Amino acid sequence: MFVLLNFLAVLAFILMLTVPALTEGNVTCSGTAMDWYTSQVGETACKTYERLRQICNSDFEVGVMSNTFPPDTCDEQISDCCCNSIAYALAMLCLNCQQNIGGGSGYDAPAGDYQLYLQGSRINSTCSPVQNQTLSTSIQTAVCNEEIKLFDSLYSLFWTDGSWYYMYTEQSISKAIASNNNNTFTHCASTTLNGTSTSSSGSSSSASSNLTSSHSSNLSGGAIGGIVVGAIVGVVATALLMWFCWWKRKEGRKATKPENKIEPFAQGEGRDRRGNYSTEVQAKSR
Ligand SMILES: *[C@@H]1O[C@H](CO)[C@@H](O)[C@H](O)[C@H]1NC(C)=O
Ligand SMILES: *[C@@H]1O[C@H](CO)[C@@H](O)[C@H](O)[C@H]1NC(C)=O
Ligand SMILES: *[C@@H]1O[C@H](CO)[C@@H](O)[C@H](O)[C@H]1NC(C)=O
Ligand SMILES: *[C@@H]1O[C@H](CO)[C@@H](O)[C@H](O)[C@H]1NC(C)=O
Ligand SMILES: *[C@@H]1O[C@H](CO)[C@@H](O)[C@H](O)[C@H]1NC(C)=O
Ligand SMILES: *[C@@H]1O[C@H](CO)[C@@H](O)[C@H](O)[C@H]1NC(C)=O
């Protein structure tokens, strides 16, 4: 019995580990090439992109970014979250994250790609209003409330012909990180590091340091959900096992009754099971 119990415990543990991996899926990078992003932000570019778009559509999930351009489209009816150059840049970074080719020259986008992203499945029109190099006030507020870290460089970098360049983006961000002492998320007070200003920055920095540690944790929402599911499965499996043990023991006690001893063991057990089953059914139907 203990062997079986151990086996089930191990099974539950494995489930706890694999379920998060399955639910993470498309937001994980397939390699280490974009660790420069993940180590600073505390999540992958795909996760940032997903969180940004979930402000407008809580059901949004990152799919597999297309490597025949555009990587994704802004097809939402409430399109404020994706109808901007920042969301587009995140989609391109997500493509590089999923493909793990950021280590080489990465995926660049040809001229006109940004416009295709904005157009989506619309005919002769784009989402509107288009926000280049900025977010609408309400989305920016939501980003700060949700403590979504958007590099300052994602606001400033822009190619008016609608192209996009991985190496240029990565190197610009790396340079900004180095020259600003990691203080590269300054569009929100909640993500701005302790700066040069007075008491107000002190309080905001203590809030942001708490936030940084919680965000750099490797467990994202999906992982936590997976662990919860795994734990529930484990508890249910243990409960089932305990019930099974109890039932088995009850069976064992019955088998020692004199009437059963007359018949061969295997037969007796089979009959007894059937008998037990029918009494259960009777009890239920009463
Ligand atoms: C990844 O995205 C594809 C669609 O692009 C979807 O079919 C798949 O279920 C997603 N995987 C996960 C784990 O969400
Ligand atoms: C799209 O634009 C083209 C050229 O401006 C025009 O000929 C065509 O009729 C438009 N299509 C629709 C569905 O509006
Ligand atoms: C945003 O940029 C695109 C690509 O350069 C351009 O076509 C569009 O007119 C711009 N929109 C605004 C509102 O600046
Ligand atoms: C910047 O961030 C990196 C990695 O997160 C860290 O190792 C480094 O100490 C930080 N530098 C400063 C000045 O905070
Ligand atoms: C904030 O900056 C001030 C002055 O630079 C410094 O004395 C203080 O320790 C900093 N606080 C934190 C939490 O880094
Ligand atoms: C942030 O951390 C400080 C000390 O580390 C603590 O006093 C404060 O309650 C924390 N704030 C939140 C919101 O967790």
From TrEMBL:
Ion transport as UniProt keyword: no
Transmembrane annotation, as ranges: 223-247
Keywords tagged on the record: Membrane, Signal, Transmembrane, Transmembrane helix
Basic and acidic residues: bias regions: 253-262
This protein's record includes keyword Transmembrane: yes
Compositional bias segments (type: Polar residues): 276-286
Annotated membrane topology: Single-pass membrane protein
Record protein name field: Uncharacterized protein
Organism: Lentinula boryana
Taxonomic classification: Eukaryota, Fungi, Dikarya, Basidiomycota, Agaricomycotina
